[in-house]
Design goal:
This protein has helices at 23-26, 94-119, 163-177, 191-196, and strands spanning 42-44, 74-77, 80-88, 121-122, 125-126, 137-139, 146-149, 153-154, 161-162, 183-187, 200-203, 206-209, 214-218, 235-241, 244-248, 252-254, 261-262, 267-280, 284-290. The chain is an alpha+beta fold and 302 residues long. The chain has one domain. The radius of gyration is 23 Å and the shape is globular. The termini are far apart.
Amino acid sequence: MAVIDRARARVLSPTYTPLPYGLLSVASGQTEGAGSHWEAGIEYQPDTCAMAGVTTDNCLDSITKAPTVTGIGARGSNPFTVYAEIQCGPIGSYDEMAARTTTALTNGEGRAIERVFWTGVAGGETIHPHLAHDAQVLDSSGVVPIVLQTAASVLTTGASIDVTEAVGSLEGALSECYGGEGVLHVPRSAVAHLAANGLVYRDGQRLRTFGGNLVAAYTSNDCEGPTGADPAAGQAWFYATGAVDVRRGPISYSSALPEALNRSENTLAYIAERTVVFTWDCCHFATQVTLGGTITGGAGVG
């Protein structure tokens, strides 16, 4: 069959629209300036999440006020880098390559951040904190130990529970521990089950439970439990935390490095990257969920 020689018109690729309801939709935070110390990791002293005390005594002077021995506890987070790479010819428009790699990065960074937030896996290293972890990790290099990682408190043991019971269990624990607007973290494959059972509704570009908490649906369909193990087929792990914060640095570019040039193919790797640090407030719960079973027919996401 003869090959038809014809000129091809160069057009834009199909428009990419990111899925809603992901981790970034529920996170506070902002794009930080370059050169900030936060890019080496952060530490902070969280506000207390404890319930306020009550008394029938009109004179509060009679209440015993024990001095703090160790001071206010500190939390910390490790930084990591998300990047996108495009192979191109060494001669061409750098503005075009910057635009293409920027698009590639912004299209894919949400999924990458979600993967690290759930599993902690980033380039062969472990990032703290992350959801699927069952032990506390401390940074004891300073005067006061800093909590880098909390252990997920598993609310159910043995057999998994259905989605309705799971949401109720997580929200109940979250209200006792936090009392504020928290986040439920679920694989995106669970959204259909949550909606069919009338457990969530759409609040703009975010999902919310009727209990008032936000829902982050992970596009990579992460299901690992606190030990890092995958659940049985038809099951998943759900997590609940306090408010989530994600800090992202400005996008930077690299193509002038010697290792960016593939001499055998005469191509250049153009890379866009940015630094990311995330954390969550106070609480960290987990429960194993059965996604199958009878769908009761709820109000759906509307």
